Amino acid sequence: MNIEHLKKHGKTAGYLDGQMLLAMPGMTDPRFVKSVIYLCAHSGDGAMGLVVNRKSRRIKFHDLLVQLEVVRKEDSILLPGRAGEVPVLRGGPVETQRGFVLHSSDYSADETTMRVDGDVSLTVSVDILRAIAQGVGPRRAVLALGYAGWGAGQLENEIQQNGWLSCPADADLLFDEDFDTKYTRALGKLGVDPAMLVGEAGHA
């Protein structure tokens, strides 16, 4: 999964790029129970998204900067305030060692940045990590390790089988750090009470 491939297809009418997927309460796949997924790309070839409500409990952003040699260990405590606060998320079960930065669109790295929708972009190069470490990165950002992926027609089938609800993305909800309530709040944007939902779920 690379930016060139995602950019090639672009946003197409009838697809859900830039929207959120909310797992139905009947979701049986433990990887996606109560997940909120931001869909970065969706086309006839499949879909790719990032889980945005599961924070990594073990990995910190400044530790990753050191591991990737963006900063020296002794300099990590000198990072600008925002750099030290970038959340690291468990973005999905595919390529869990790979990082994807979802961020506000006030930053762009040309070939490695794709604007998904409105004020949300996706960048996959280390350049954005350097920019954040230097205090010149995007205003808002999260780093997701791994992603959720679907083959051609798979997501559509799972939606038809009541596996997922979709709703317009809300940048404030997307980037805020109240992870424990994000799923309930996302359902609330649709006027949905989780207790009222039933259905069998698919698998991504």
Describe what this molecule looks like in 3D.
This protein has helices at 3-9, 61-67, 81-84, 127-133, 154-160, 171-175, 179-189; strands at 19-23, 36-43, 46-51, 88-90, 94-104, 113-117, 120-123, 141-150, 164-168. It has seven helices and nine strands. The relative contact order is 0.23. Strands 1, 2, 3, 4, 5, 6, 7, 8 and 9 form a nine-stranded mixed β-sheet that branches. The model is unreliable at 199-204 (pLDDT under 50). With 204 residues, it is an alpha+beta fold. It has a single domain, classed as VC0467-like (3-Layer(aba) Sandwich). A hairpin with a 2-residue loop joins strand 2 (36-43) and strand 3.
In short:
The protein has helices at 3-9, 61-67, 81-84, 127-133, 154-160, 171-175, 179-189; strands at residues 19-23, 36-43, 46-51, 88-90, 94-104, 113-117, 120-123, 141-150, 164-168. With 204 residues, it is an alpha+beta fold. A hairpin with a 2-residue loop joins strand 2 (36-43) and strand 3 (46-51).
Keywords:
alpha+beta, 7 helices, VC0467-like, nine-stranded mixed sheet
Number of helices: 7
Please report which band the strand proportion falls in: under 5%, 5-15%, 15-25%, 25-35%, 35-45% or over 45%: 25-35%
Uncertain residue ranges:
199-204
* CATH architecture type: 3-Layer(aba) Sandwich
At the fourth level of CATH, the homologous superfamily is: VC0467-like
The number of domains is 1
- Helix and strand content put the structural class at alpha+beta
The count of DSSP E runs of length 2 or more, i.e. the number of strands, is 9
Mean residue pLDDT:
85
SSE run:
HEEEHHEEEEHEHEHH
